[in-house]
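pipeline/complex-builder :: batch 7 item 3
reading input block
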Amino acid sequence: MSEKSYVEHLAGSVFDNLRYQHDWTELQILTHSPVDNSPLPRPLISGLPPRRLYLHPDDQIEILKSNPNPEGRIPETPVVEWVLPVHLAEKWTLKAFASIFDSMPPETSAGPGRVKRVLLATVHNDSTVVYYFMHDGIVKPRQN
Amino acid sequence: MHPETPRLNRYVNALVRCGFLLPEEMASSTISRSPVRISKVAGRCLLFDIEDVMYLRKNHNICSVFVGTIPQNPQQNIFMGLPIELMPEEAQVLVDKKVGYVVDDAAFHPARLAALDDDARKRYLQAVKAEGRKAQIAAAESKQNAKPKVIGTKKEKAKIKTSENETNPEAHDESLFSPPSPPPSSGVPQAEEPPPAFAITPTTSSLLIHPSAPPDSPPSDVSVVDHLPPSYPLYAHLQDRGYYMMPGLRFGCDYNVYPGDPLRFHSHFQAASYGWEEEMAVLDLVAGGRLGTNVKKGYLIGGAVVRADDDGDDGDANRDKKIEGIDKNPNAPRARAFCIEWAAM
């Protein structure tokens, strides 16, 4: 039997899903916080998606204003995303989510005043993974 | 004419004014104002004064729900009128911000009536009569406006008709409201004698309050808000940031959160409140996120922060930034909120 714990298996299956199904690159599983090197409550995955995953609605408005051309208006340059692997049957608390966000490095890719975000990778027993963005604060929804 | 029409008209006008917020109106109403009197009736916080309702809607992003029906139509469930029923959270926020105070009307009303001396009693009765006259004038005006313009010979005909025919609908209408009085003789022109005022049954205690209570004195008969739900910290947190909250039952959450007046904006979030260490199923987050995405909203979870030890507040700089022009609530509990939306991958 392997020595891996439950959360490590979980992180492993999300890791594989991102790598093989979603073509992410520069993937790594972090067990210690990049901020102060303390152990993370559970492993986080960081990686580079093939294209930009999230655009803040205010940035979208800016881009539409400056560039009325509808083609190629979403910048394709991807930014590093943080992924939190969870299982559908788990129970979480606000406190646990807060500790995850507190252990993450501050958001730098977007403009000032933007909050941290994490990609919630929810694994089900049939190996389906669904992804939801979770923002650390009140962030208005995208126009989709 | 329906007997309730003048009353309805007044409410409709006020509602229309609520929806269209003119800048000059907003500026004028921010000048210091006596606290809003919240009537507690059977444990529910009600507001009966349309001025208060408009003030809270413009200046304190609280709009709440109209619950009043027309007496003849108690099963009415759309186009409701005054009063509005404040959620306990809303009442508590107003009390915390010292914008309002809660009065137990069941205790207040008889106590105040018993305390009236002869002079005050006279003034009160006069005030009630004045209200009746006001209502009557309003009714006459709206009747005048509703009347189709008649010309030439038709007008003369109509005149003759009114002077001769006592059973025309308008005359009949007035007699419903006026105390029994001798019918006007057909020879005397009607314009010269003032028509008797409507008999008004006061629906609020406001006439009892105004003559005596000076606006600056702290109200002595303050009651407390009952049934404050555990979601209050999240409510106060969002309210403090200028969001408008409506009951969230329609979207399976605690509040629908609007970025501005709900008449002008779609809601941005469905907010669900949790305790700091209350367990939430991940399945609920996924369900909330799916529902929210389908209706173009974010799913917001949040609650009061309970800190066992004083760890770093590094991420709080943005959250504590207040929106200008909104009165801060000094007693708002510290809360933290997270938003969930579909990642589309």
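note: The first strand of chain A starts at residue 25 and ends at 32.
queue -> next item
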